[in-house]
Amino acid sequence: MPTSDPVPQDVLGPLTRAAHFLVLTVDPGGEDDVRDLLGDLAGLVRALGFGRPEDGLSCVAGVGSAAWDRLFDGPRPAELHPFVELTGPRHHAVATPGDLLFHIRATGQDLCFGLAAQIMRRLRGSVTVRDEVQGFSYYDFRDLLGFVDGTENPTGPVADAAALVGAEDQDFAGGSYVIVQKYVHDLDGWNALSVEAQEQIIGRTKLTNVELDAPGSHLDLTTITEPDGTERKILRDNMPFGSPGQGEFGTYFIGYAKTPEVTEEMLRNMFLGREPSSHDRILDFSTAVTGTLFYAPTADFLDDPPPAPEAAGAEAASDSTPTVSGPVPVPVTVPADASLGIGDLKRSAPS
Fold it and tell me: 2, 59, 110, 138: most buried by Cβ count inside 10 Å?
């Protein structure tokens, strides 16, 4: 339960050389096993990471909207809702199933793998794996498109303010909303572009990572500002992944924020456009194949959670209707005949 000084999970941890992402759904009857695992998660991290503290093993667990009321009685995070699917004139941000997220990080992939294996040993038979990705650091923290990723991540108190829920939802202060998407790249099409064309799409120079004045670029569309000019930030921990033998190359996007509104506005700009751009041109070469929203509770919450719904009393057990605070966003669709307005940039080969 919340305390006067909540202790966040390791949301604000530094970028690492390796990561393991698990997205699961809870099978009927598996709720007790999930609750038990979440309560033991911090102990598993300590046990596996004890011999190599310098490798910084950590894990952030998130819970999806559909699972929250199956796992916990009482109030729920004010802005926890299903991922908002977006259908633009050319590209689609899909919504995919996900009740649990485990974001595992360390310097060594072996520690990430070992913790993921322990989590699945405990949960096998109680959950279904919906997605599993092993991420890695690529050169000097570049994505597989060749650009440095994460340059604008906030640090220090700014990171706290951007990523962690505050007094606006006191019961869940110290937690964080996290959106994940798995993007698969058309590297043949991307690499057929000139470096200058790639830089205009991204909004940065490729070699030196210097910001460009490039209206409609990825950087431009994902920069969100208040009316007074204050920039609203999120905390990204994106990781490349892939299988050269299978021809798969991608980026696993993961963004933490105190409110999902900020990340959702970024995604609307990317997929639906913001005048004068119809969409983010990086999407002509990067396809979103998953999309899920979670709330990552505090470490205190996981150590001492509310009772399970069936243990909350007969009155609560008789009410099977989940309680959602505030309106739930609905999918947004733009007519297919809307103007694209992207100039002459086109894929050189179909994905």
Answer: 59
CB neighbours (10 Å) of residue 229? 6
Q: Are 302 and 174 in contact (CB under 8 A)?
A: no
The residue among 160, 145, 167, 119 whose CA lies nearest residue 218 is 145
Examine residue 276 and say whether the peptide bond preceding it is cis (omega within 30 degrees of 0). Answer: yes
pLDDT tens digit sequence for 270-323: 999 999 999 999 999 999 999 999 999 999 999 999 999 986 543 333 444 444
What is the distance between the alpha carbons of residues 290 and 83, in angstroms, rounded to a whole number? 10
CA distance 171 to 191: 48
Which tokens belong to 17?
């050389």
Scanning the structure block, which residue is given the tokens 């199933």? 97
Evaluate whether 251 touches 313 at the Cβ level (below 8 Å).
no
Q: How does strand 86-87 pair with strand 332-333?
A: parallel
Which pTM was predicted? 0.88
Per the residue annotation, which of 149, 169, 237, 300 is the catalytic one? Answer: 149
Q: What is the pLDDT of residues 243-259, one digit of tens each?
A: 999 999 999 999 999 99
The secondary element (H helix, E strand) that includes residue 332 is strand 332-333
Closest to 24 (Cα-Cα) out of 83, 94, 91, 102: 102
Annotated catalytic residue 149: yes
Question: Strands (DSSP E) along 69-166, which ranges?
Answer: 86-87, 92-93, 100-106, 127-136
- Helices and strands per DSSP (H, E), number in the chain: 10, 15
Average pLDDT, the chain: 90
pLDDT tens by residue, 35-68: 999 999 999 999 999 999 999 999 999 999 999 9
Query: Over pLDDT 70: what percentage of the chain?
Result: 87
Give dist(CA 41, CA 122) in Å, integer.
10
Sign of the alpha-carbon torsion through 271, 136, 260, 319: positive
Q: What is the mean pLDDT of residues 76-96?
A: 97
Cα 343 versus chain centre, distance: 31
